[in-house]
């Protein structure tokens, strides 16, 4: 059962990343290599997070995402990735805004402020409204 859950998690991660990649104007063919080539320029072939061993079940998927020039995942300043900690709403907002192509700096008072403001500007978040 654990192996099945890992495969589903891997599929979800890859699906999320691929679903937001820009598509070429000419949709006559999928053009996958052309889309991915710019994202992998200057990519390293290993992950340098101290808490992500090469034997981790998600290592290849994380490496795939880390090769993207948009820096979707950057980890923590102490050089860790903290893969067993939950993904917070603020982290998720940063991921979405970054995947959309925005290159924002962390906020001064709170790191996620700039990402939250951009999500509001884009209509992804409606202040004061809870959507279930």
Domains, number:
2
The helix/strand series, from N terminus to C terminus, equals: HHHHH
| Derived structural class | mainly alpha
Radius of gyration: 16 Å
Descriptive key words:
single chain, mainly alpha, 2 domains, 5 helices
Structure description:
This protein has 132 residues and is mostly helical.
Task: Briefly characterize the structure.
With 132 residues, the protein is mostly helical.
How is the secondary structure organized here?
Blueprint: H1 2-19, H2 32-39, H3 59-66, H4 89-99, H5 113-121
